[in-house]
């Protein structure tokens, strides 16, 4: 029987609550589909930092690295300096494990979840490939005259030929695998941010290797407009780090809200990290009101990545079924007690697999 080692970082705020539901679901799926998950929990996050002043010690980082996958709930706390824990935990894993793909599917499970008029599930079904290790996130920044009237702050966007190419190639591969509209859209801002010309040129070169895949292009501002006006226009899109961060929150709303959007931070063939895209939502923490659907879907993405495709699909189908039948009312805060959703998904999944 296949066995997978999973490092779990439940994190802050609503992280632990939604993680508990996601793990319930993946465990039940393992039982149904005949594989094992061995989980090791790590305490890192803001609470742990406040208690111990420890962010993510090197020894623990090395240990986490040795797992088959990492599952993360959410991280961040307003009591700490902006970005301290985000950079020390999430970004550290993204950069030091070279998780160069941020895979963010945007799919509408049921018409009533969509805030846009007359959009149906077939209209909102796309995958955003966010380059995950470069751009404005590369960390090259500095200050001069700090704190004085003359202060200057700079941050350099970094794009490497290889970094761009591997993200673009991944997008073309996904478009081929999905076999839907067979289209990859490059989203950039090369008309104003001139260095993004490296994206334009690399995209054109890589596209030659995929004659079966159509190409499209949109500047990020226009892409935001299209996302609302005609989401059906997108199949697979590839975009630099910062734009990917922004447009996927927009996409999350189009698919029903932050409580539904999941992601994978991936280095194909290596240990990869799965997380809901929402944050720690401190004001809702500990009240049993946050929706764990995004966290559960991140679990499904993790199982797909581990090669347990049937199990991954079973979770996704169960969620779709619950929305379609109206048993899952939605993902807004308080729509269901957090700790009841996992069981609902498990029941639906079991009913479908025994039918
Ligand atoms: C995300 C988040 C992170 C990001 C934060 C927490 C640093 O918004 O995963 O989208 O900006 O990448
Ligand atoms: Mg974000």
**Number of DSSP helices?**
11
Q: Which strands sit side by side, in order, in the main sheet?
A: 2-1-3-12-11-4-5-10-8-9
Q: What letter string, H or E per element, gives the SSE order?
A: EHEHHEHEEEEHEHEHEHEEHHH
Q: Can you give the helix content as a percent range?
A: 40-55%
General form: globular
| Main sheet record | 10 strands, mixed
Structure description:
The chain has helices spanning 15-33, 46-52, 58-65, 84-96, 161-178, 197-207, 220-229, 241-254, 293-306, 309-325, 338-354, and strands spanning 3-11, 36-42, 69-74, 101-107, 125-131, 141-144, 152-155, 183-188, 214-219, 236-239, 262-266, 272-276. The chain has 355 residues and is an alpha/beta fold. Helix 1 (15-33) packs across helix 9 (293-306), helix 7 (220-229) packs parallel to helix 8 and helix 10 (309-325) packs across helix 11 (338-354). The protein is built from 11 helices and 12 strands. The protein binds 3-isopropylmalic acid and magnesium ion. The site of 3-isopropylmalic acid has 4 residues, from helix 4.
Describe the protein's topology.
Elements: E1 3-11, H1 15-33, E2 36-42, H2 46-52, H3 58-65, E3 69-74, H4 84-96, E4 101-107, E5 125-131, E6 141-144, E7 152-155, H5 161-178, E8 183-188, H6 197-207, E9 214-219, H7 220-229, E10 236-239, H8 241-254, E11 262-266, E12 272-276, H9 293-306, H10 309-325, H11 338-354
Parallel strand pairs: 1-2, 1-3, 3-12, 5-10, 8-9, 8-10
Antiparallel strand pairs: 4-5, 4-11, 6-7, 11-12
The structure holds 3-isopropylmalic acid and magnesium ion (MG).
Magnesium ion is lined by residues 245, 249, 277.
